[in-house]
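Data deposition worksheet. Section B asks for the primary sequence of the deposited chain exactly as it was used as input, without tags or linkers unless they were present during the calculation. Section C holds the resulting structure in token form. Section D is free text for depositor observations; keep each observation to a single sentence. Incomplete worksheets are returned to the depositor.
Section A, Depositor: J.P.
Section B:
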Amino acid sequence: MRVIILHFLDRESKNNDAIVRALADSASRAGHIVEIVDGTRSTDSLRLTPYEYVVVFSPSYGLFKGRIHSRVAEVLSSCGNVTGKKGAAFVTKSLFSAPSANQALMTAMEKEGMVVNDFNIIENSEQASAAGSHLG
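Section C:
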């Protein structure tokens, strides 16, 4: 299955890079063809149509009321028809806001017509690897 990991994580952090890489490597070992795309960079020509599974990974912001990266909704709405596509919503661990940030991410994906069949709060590479092994 063709999988895209669309992340909005800060590339400056080595931990975030390791988390995304662990997620992709684990999904590849499970037999998927994986492509990683940084959603914080230019995504004007990005189309999600060729992919069968879409993983959206955002940091969680806020202390109690969880928020996701501001570009998530913008990028998802500009990437072509995603109605009916299966996907996963992952957010980074934060103090108290991660569950509500995960809910906000799922809502943004479902607003575009995606079917979210997996969601999780990911803190480290081991959790990312476990999540990547059962995508699809």
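Section D:
Helices lie at 14-29, 72-77, 98-111, 125-132.
The longest helix spans residues 14-29.
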